[in-house]
């Protein structure tokens, strides 16, 4: 049977109007979801940064125990105060509190993501800041291996906070002040 003129087969596809409607709906949904997506990214970046720093602290402690020597973790900032620039785990052979030519570098971490802030609140918090462990695995000062050095590193990103707490025995834990007890520390920067 022959089809009449103009009654051709329908081709697959969409019209320009249908495509415009779909793009408009997708744009509205993306505009609504974008703030939540940004908060999700910030939370994940903060979890990753605190996990990396926690891992560096654990490496510092385990290397101190394995070597039966004092091992340090310090910010890569030349002034010794900005942890967002990254950090270095090292054996400070020359005692200058900075990784250098004669020191044994064990681990280096690069800068943290844009927007992450770190506050350091330890006994003897003046720069240069550092975390040191002695051969017994206890947190200590870099001048005397038996003086306990405890405190809190607070990491901030937007409204999210994580704290890394080191007790007087050198044990470390991560907490979230929004849901964990005994998770006090520095106020979020404004």
Per-chain topology:
Elements: H1 16-67, E1 71-75, E2 87-91, E3 104-109, E4 117-122, E5 131-133, E6 139-140, E7 151-157, E8 160-166, E9 172-175
Antiparallel strand pairs: 1-2, 1-5, 2-3, 4-7, 5-6, 7-8, 8-9
Structural class: alpha+beta
Please, how many helices?
1
Largest beta-sheet details? 5 strands, antiparallel
Mean pLDDT: 87
Name the beta content range: 15-25%
The largest beta-sheet arranges its strands as 3-2-1-5-6
Care to count the β-strands? 9
Taken in chain order, the helices and strands follow as HEEEEEEEEE
Q: Given the C-alpha coordinates, what overall shape results?
A: elongated
Cα-atom Rg, whole angstroms? 26 Å
Describe it.
The longest helix has 52 residues, at 16-67. The chain is 27% helix and 24% strand. The protein is elongated. With 190 residues, the chain is α+β, with helices and mostly antiparallel strands. The chain is built from one helix and nine strands, in the order H-E-E-E-E-E-E-E-E-E. Strands 3-2-1-5-6 form a five-stranded antiparallel sheet, covered by helices on one side. It has a four-stranded antiparallel sheet with strand order 4-7-8-9, covered by helices on one side. A hairpin with a 5-residue loop joins strand 8 and strand 9.
